[in-house]
Amino acid sequence: MTEPKQPLTDVKTLVARVAETNDFADLIGHVPYAKFIGMQVNRFGDELVFQLPANDDNIGNPVLPALHGGVIAGFMEMSAIIQLMVFMQTSKVPKVVDFSIDYLRAGYHKDSFAECHITRQGRRVANVHIECWQTSRKQLIATARAHFLIE
């Protein structure tokens, strides 16, 4: 059994350590939902690719079986938040202002991936475009657009 994480008091220090070491486990460990769905992060140069491993607890339709739409949306939202935190070196967790998702096809019971693109960054608001796929980046299962308040 793992020990519970200490409360997160210094976000900026944690984010700086993550950006330096590329070890996202501690950051994800402080986000109960990300930890619950099994989210992982891989860094390739200046790009982050987020992974949602196949997990029976994330299934919404056992007949197909397919991922629950809320799990897909939550995974994509958490991906955008972590992307902003790492690349903008935030001192606080960005707050969601608006999140809009388009489901394009069923997300089956297999690993899913997401990539985020910060499309506009103002002084206080950032816009992020998120794409989610499983087998091929050319066959997206969902896309989303999100706006975040950054302090």
From TrEMBL:
Gene3D superfamilies: Hotdog Thioesterase. It comes from Shewanella mangrovi. InterPro entries: HotDog_dom_sf (IPR029069), Thioestr_dom (IPR006683). PANTHER family: 1,4-DIHYDROXY-2-NAPHTHOYL-COA THIOESTERASE 1 (PTHR43240), THIOESTERASE DOMAIN-CONTAINING PROTEIN (PTHR43240:SF3). CDD domains: PaaI_thioesterase. Residues 67-139 form the Thioesterase domain. One of its GO terms (molecular function) is thiolester hydrolase activity. This is Thioesterase.
